[in-house]
Amino acid sequence: MEREFAGGVRVEVVRGDITDQEDVEAIVNAANAGLTSGGGVAGAIHAAAGPGLAEEARLLAPIEPGEAVITGGHDLPNRYVIHALGPVYGQDRPEAELLADCYRNSLALAEERGISSVTFPAISTGVFGYPKREAAGVALRAVTEEAEKLRSVRLVRFVLFGEEDRKVYEDALARLLGERE
Ligand code: ADP
Questions:
Q1: Per-residue pLDDT tens for 29-55?
Q2: What pLDDT does residue 64 have?
Q3: Ligand 1 contacts CB of residue 125 (under 6 A)
Q4: Residue 122 in contact with ligand 1 by CB distance below 6 A
Q5: Number of domains making up the chain
Q6: With bands split at pLDDT 50, 70 and 90, how would you rate the model's confidence at 180?
Q7: Dihedral (CA of 138, 156, 87, 161) sign
Q8: Does the residue 181 lie in any domain?
Q9: 32, 50, 53, 108: least CB-packed within 10 angstroms?
Q10: In terms of C-beta density within 10 A (0-12 exposed, 13-18 middle, 19 or more buried), how is residue 178 classed?
């Protein structure tokens, strides 16, 4: 699914793998506070980027929930990795605000670097336990509310690992646009 927003920003929701996004300049990592590897998105990104990523990221750690930092992409096909720390559901509060901050702060870093395309994963919806439907609403709202202010970012893609998740994020986008209940 693909929609164009105010100012010409394209928002896409697709199924795929975050490490397989060679046509975007930056991918976003659902990071942990220490910016180390681990499982899920972070594990996949660190495995594909090689050890140089952890070495560079270590110097920027620790980060707080809602915060984002940027590094190079190392062996990834992307020029940059933006590392955002999502809230642990039921623990880091207010969780919706902190989750929205991840998306806003990541886009702000992208703007600062003149980045034109960014792919986000479903931050906090894995081990951090954020219910997907809620997380999807927060994520899509945060991005579409920023859309008008974006100057260099022209494409924001959400990549979901499974078909079910893709539908949940698509629904959230459609609901925001008033296309679905
Ligand atoms: P968090 O710790 O922020 O919850 P996770 O990495 O555990 O982050 O998971 C975030 C979401 O990303 C989950 O919905 C998970 O299914 C999905 N995911 C896991 N691996 C990948 C991948 N390689 N590409 C895209 N999405 C992924």
A1: 999 999 999 999 999 999 999 999 999
A2: 98
A3: yes
A4: yes
A5: 1
A6: confident
A7: positive
A8: no
A9: 50
A10: exposed
Find how far residue 39's CA is from the centre of its chain.
16
pTM of the model: 0.98
Percent of the chain with pLDDT over 90: 97
CA 180 to centroid of ligand 1, rounded, Å: 26
Q: What is the mean pLDDT of the chain?
A: 97
Question: Which structural domain, as residue segments, surrounds residue 48?
Answer: 2-176
Residue whose CB lies within 8 A of the most ligand 1 atoms, among 161, 163, 168, for a mutation test: 161
CATH number at residue 66: 3.40.220.10
List the helix and strand counts (H, then E) for the chain.
5, 7
181 pLDDT above the threshold of 80: no
Peptide bond between residue 94 and the one before it cis (omega within 30 degrees of 0): yes
74 lies in some domain: yes
